[in-house]
Amino acid sequence: MAQVVQLVLEGEGVLAGLDENAVIHQGAGHITVSSLPDGTKSGNPSVAIISKLDDGSYVFLEMSLAMFQTVNAGLRGRYGKIA
Predict the structure, then answer these.
(1) CB-CB contact of 45 with 19 (8 Å)
(2) Number of CB atoms found within 10 A of residue 7's CB
(3) S-S: 44 plus which of 1, 31, 40, 55, CB 3.0-4.6 Å?
């Protein structure tokens, strides 16, 4: 499956399109962000984002480091450097 990451810089409206019955919404008490040196099929690095849900299950998201850096560049372009 092709990796697609949609960066929405004006994100308030993005939640309106979600089915509320299908969304698990909770405060993120602990999020782990980790690099995986050979995470992609081609052997390039990837970034994993992991969060434990209240029911004990986990959400695991992974994207290439290149995609993560592209998202970061877009956010920096929108908001500048945040200290």
Answers:
(1) no
(2) 13
(3) 40
Q: What is d(CA 7, CA 15) in angstroms, rounded to the nearest whole number?
A: 13
Which pTM was predicted?
0.75
Residue 63 — pLDDT band, cuts 50, 70, 90?
A: very high
Q: What is the DSSP string of the chain?
A: --------SSGGGGGGGS-GGG------S-EEEEEETT-STTS--EEEEEEE-TTS-EEEEEEEHHHHHHHHHHHHHHH----
Enumerate residues 6+ apart whose C-beta is below 8 A from 39.
45, 46, 47, 48, 62, 64, 65
Q: How many CB atoms lie within 10 A of CB 64?
A: 19
Region for 42 from its dihedrals, namely left if φ exceeds 0, alpha if ψ lies in -120 to 50, beta otherwise: alpha
